[in-house]
Amino acid sequence: MLAVTIEDSVGMTQRKEREQKINKEMEEKAAKELEKEHLQEKAKEKYQEWLKKKNAQECEKKKKEKEKEKQRQAELQKKKEIAEKKFKEWLENAKNKPRPAAKSYGYANGKLTDFYSGNSYPEPAFYNPIPWKPIHMPPSKDAKDLSGKKTKRPVISQPHRSSSSLVAQKARSNLCLGTLCRIQR
């Protein structure tokens, strides 16, 4: 009986040890879960704080934008009023400005005519007293080189030209359009 009691006592101690291990593991799991929940709550709180800050910044940004828009609208309105005022002043001054007398002559084809008609231009208001002169540019080196390399072509004398060749020469000076009027040489 003693042997059975020793085995029972050993089995019981092993059971107690197992139960204690299981209890410890359960307690550790529970502690980890509590810690996780605590961390999640902290994370939620931080997120809520961050969200509040972000919303406040957005509201502030929108307020600033509204203020800028109001300021811009006020500036535009001010500019508009000033422009209208200046335009009215100009209209008043334009009524009082002396107008040039109607000339009884005009310019046609760059020459002065004795009468004014709808086909002639009005007298020029300004002309340049110093006439335009082209800028002198010395010839380039390439042009000098090419001018020295020119060769003369031999001139072929034609003893007799017929009237048909004169017509062909005249036709070359006329303007022609399309492929029908080609110059043949």
From TrEMBL:
Residue span of region Disordered: 1-21, 58-77, 133-169
Pfam families given in the database record: CCDC34
Residue spans of biased composition, Basic and acidic residues class: 139-148
Residues in Coiled-coil domain copies: 14-132
Transmembrane parts of this sequence: none
InterPro entries registered for this protein in UniProt: CCDC34, CCDC34/181
Domain of life: Eukaryota
UniProt xrefs under PANTHER family: COILED-COIL DOMAIN-CONTAINING PROTEIN 34, NY-REN-41 ANTIGEN L15 -RELATED
Protein name as catalogued: (raccoon dog) hypothetical protein
Source organism phylogeny: Eukaryota, Metazoa, Chordata, Craniata, Vertebrata
